[in-house]
Amino acid sequence: MNVVLYSKSDCGLCDEAERLLRRLQPEIHFQLEVVDIESEDKLFDRYWDKVPVVVVEGKEVAVAPVDARELRAVLTP
């Protein structure tokens, strides 16, 4: 399973979401890619007011604030 976390620097909620995903990763086994939205204007324009955003297999499943129980439910097969 592929999971993308869209985040930006100096974002406490983004850091928290990444820590949560990294804690779940060994248990649920997914590939995590962290993408800084400030690296591309297109990404920044799309996500600047939503980060952190979690996308699973191309589908947006969580936005700030990311709820641990909801995210676990989405990631668990």
Question: What is the topological layout?
Answer:
Elements: E1 2-7, H1 12-28, E2 31-36, H2 41-47, E3 53-56, E4 59-63, H3 68-75
Could you name the key traits of this structure?
77 residues; alpha+beta; Glutaredoxin; 3 helices
Estimated helix fraction? 40-55%
CATH class category label: Alpha Beta
CATH superfamily membership: Glutaredoxin
List the secondary-structure elements in sequence, H or E: EHEHEEH
Beta-strand fraction estimate: 25-35%
Identify the strand order in the major beta sheet: 2-1-3-4
Q: What is the average of the pLDDT values?
A: 95
The shape is: globular
The N- to C-terminal Cα distance equals 10 Å
Tally of discrete structural domains = 1
- Write the CATH fold name: Glutaredoxin
SSE class = alpha+beta
Describe the structure.
It is a single chain. By secondary structure, the protein is α+β, with helices and mostly antiparallel strands. It has one domain: Glutaredoxin (3-Layer(aba) Sandwich), CATH 3.40.30. The protein is 42% helix and 27% strand. The protein has helices at 12-28, 41-47, 68-75; strands at residues 2-7, 31-36, 53-56, 59-63. Strands 2-1-3-4 form a 4-stranded mixed sheet, covered by helices on one side. Helix 1 links the parallel strand 1 (2-7) and strand 2. The longest helix has 17 residues, at 12-28.
Characterize this entry briefly.
This protein is of the alpha+beta class. The protein is built from 3 helices and 4 strands, in the order βαβαββα.
